[in-house]
Amino acid sequence: MSAPTLTQDPAAKDRRPRRPRAGAVRPPAGGLGKALRRNVTAHGFLIGAVLCFAFFSWYPIVREFLLAFQKTDDGQVSWVGWDNFVTVWNDPAFGQAWRNTLWFTALALVLGFAVPFLTALVINEFRHGQGYLRLLVYLPVMLPPTASVLLFKYLYDPGYGMFNEVLGVFGIPAQQWLQDPDTAMLSVVVASTWMNMGGATLIYLAALQGVPGELYEAAELDGAGLLRKVWHVTIPQTRLVLALMLLMQIIATMQVFIEPFLLTGGAGPEGSTTTVVYLIYQYAFNFNNYGAAAALGLILLVLLAGFSALYTRLNRATEE
Amino acid sequence: MRRARFRRTRRAGAVTLVSALTLTALAACGTSSSSDDGDDGNGSGANTDAAAPLDPKTKVTITIDCMPPAAKKAELKEWNEDVKEFNKTYPNVTIEGRSTPGQCLEPPRFTAMLKAKSQPDVFYTYFTDLEQVLDNDGAQDISAYVNDKTVPLLKDIDPDVLGSLKKDDKLYGLPTSNYRMGLLINRTLFEKAGLDPDTPPATWDEVRAAAKKIAGLGGGVAGFGEYSAANTGGWHFTAQMYSLGGDVVDASGTKAAFNDAIGKQVAENLHAMRWEDDSMGKTQLLKWGDLQKQIATDKLGMFLAAPDDVTYMVQQLGAKYENFGMGPIPGGKNTLAGGNNYMIKKGISPDKVKAAIAWLNFKFTTVGKGQYDWERTKADGLPVGLPQPNLWLNDSKTKDDAARVEFATMPVQNFKAFMDNPVPGKAEPPKAQEIYKVLDNVMSGILTNKDADIDKLLSTAETQVNQVLANQ
Fold first, then answer.
1. How far is it between the farthest Cα atoms of chain B?
2. B101-116 tens-digit pLDDT
3. How far apart are CA B162 and CA B392, in angstroms?
C-alpha cells in the first residue's frame, strides 16, 4: 500500500474522467423488452409512479390535445377540426387577454426579476443576521396565496386602505389602485412580487455565495467600487442562474391566474386584468366550452413549450 | 455511431408510438357516453302507462342530489322525516339522498357531471341550466308523466315558472323554488337617513335620491351598491335594463339590444351615483357575496337582490330579518326571474321516473307538506315568511300565504311592497354568462373610471356581444 502523493501531477487534469454530456447516456443494448426483463424489480417499483403519471398527468395532456379539436357540448363528441381555434381567435377578449398577459409578464420581469436580485445583493453584503434576513424574505411565500391576496385587497382599498392612508400623510391624493384601468395591472404585479419573491431571492443568494471571494478582492485591488464589482464580477458569475430564473419567471408569469382572479375578480376594471389563463377558466367553467378552453390552452402550451425548451438547454449549460 | 443513434431513435420512436396509442385508447375510453341502464328513456322498456302513477308493488330505488348536508341539522331532519312520511304511501320506493357540502350546484362541478353523465336519477338545476342540460342530452322529457293525478296541484303552479322548465312544449323538470329580483333595503339605515323603510324607492330617480341621503350618514356607508366583477356586473346590468323595459339581446336572439337610450340611461344613472353623488362607495369590482356582507353589517343601504339573499345573510352572516325590507325592482317594467328545480336523468326506467315525480310532488309541490309545512319549519327554527319561493296561484296561493303569515318568524310586512307590486318576470338572455362577461366591462368602466366614455363602453360591448352571438 503506497502513501498517497501530495504533489499534484500536472498530467492528472488530462487523465481525469470526463463527465458524460447530459442526455448522452446510452441505453442498455438489446431492445426494450430485454431492458425491461433485465431489471424486473426496479420496473415493478416504477409501476405505481408510472400509473400515477399516466392517469393524472399524461392522460389529461393527451385528452387536452384531443379536446381542442372536438365539440363536446351536445352530449356527443364530434371532431370539428380547427373550429375551436377560430372561436377563440374571434373572441373579442382574445387580443385583450394576450395584451394583458404580456403586459403582466413585462411588469413582472421589471419588478419581479430585479427586486429579488437586488434584495439578494443587499442580504449578501451583510456579515451578520443573514439567516434571519433569509427567513424574513421567505415568510410571504409561506403564507397561503389567498391570505396574501386578501391582505393586499385591504391595503389597496381606495376607501380605507393603508396605502392611501400613507399617501395622505404626505399630502398625496388617494389612488384607485386596483380599481383604475391604468393602474390595476401594476397593482396586481406589486402584490404578486411581494408574494413570490422569497424563493427567487434565496436562489440568487445561493448563486451570489458561490462567487469566489478572491474575484472581489482582485476587483477591489483594481479600485472597483460596489457598482463596478456587481457589473464586472457578480453579474458575469451568476449569468446563467439569472438567465434561468428569467425564463422560469416568463413561464410562470404567462400563466398568471390567482392574483388577478382574487384581487380584481378576474377581469378587472374594463377588462384590464383579464389574462389568458383566466380566459381559459371562463371558457371551461362559465361558458362550458371545453373545446375552446383546450384550444386556448394549447396555444399557450406551444408558446411556453418554446420557452421551456430554452430553459432546458440553459439548465443543461448550468449543470456543465 | 450514426447507426447506434438511429437504433436509439427508432427505439424511442417505438416507445413514443406505443405510449401514444395506449393513451389514445385510454382517452377514447373517456369519450364514450353510456346510458344508465340501457333504456332509451322514451319509456320503451315500460309496460305501464306513463300517465299513471307508480304502482305501489313495483320496487324502485332512486338517487337524488341536494339532500341537506349534516351541517344543516334542521333541514336534514326534515328531509328524513319527509322520506319516512313518503314511504308510508310508497313503501316500495327507496330514496337514496346525496348531499354535497356548500352549494348544491356549483357550475363547474355541475358541468363536469353532465359531461360525464354521472348525474343522479333526480338532479338539481337552476332554471337557466335547461339549455345546457338539453345540449348534453341529460334530462328526460316528463310531459307524459306529469298530470293532475301525479301532481294534483299542477293547475295551481304559476305557468311562468313551469314555462321556464319547458322547451318546445316539453316539460323537463319540476320547480322547487323561484325568485324575482327586487330592491333589498337596510331598514336601520333608511330610518337613520329619515326615509320610510315601508316605502322603498320605486323609480331609479327615487333610488338615487335615497342613496344620496343614506351615503350622507358618513362612516363609510354607501347608499346603493352594484356588482362589477365575475360576470355578476353584467347580470345586474341586464336586470336594470329589464327594469326600464329594455333588453340586452333582441327578439331574434342574434343582436345586442342594450346600446340604446335605455342602456345609456342605466349607465349614466350609475355613473352619476358613483361619481357625482359619491353614494355607491369607493370600493368597486364587487361580486356576489360582497354586497350581502356590506348590507348585513349596516354599511350599505340598498341593492338589487332576490328574497333568498336574506336567508343567506341571516344564516351565514348573522344578520337579523327585522333589519331588511324589500320592494319591487325600481322602474317596475320587468325583472330578472329564475329559480331552482329538479330534473330527471334521461335513460332511467319509467318506474324510476314515476317514483321520482311522486317524491318531488310530495316534497316540493304540495301545499302543507314537505317544504310547505310551515308549522314544522317554524318549530325547527328555520325562517318562515319570506315572499319566495312562491309557486302558487288560485286556492293554493291563498292557503299557502295564510300559513306563511300564521307561522311567520319574521316581520312579513317588511316584504309587503314587494308582494303587493309583482313585476313580470323575464328570463336571462341566450349565452347569458358570455354576455355578462362583456357587460362586466361596462359596469366596471362606469364604476371605476370617473372619465368613463359611456358611448364608447356601450358600443364596444355591443360589438363584442354581437360577436358572442354570432359564435353560437
1. 93
2. 777 888 778 888 888 8
3. 11
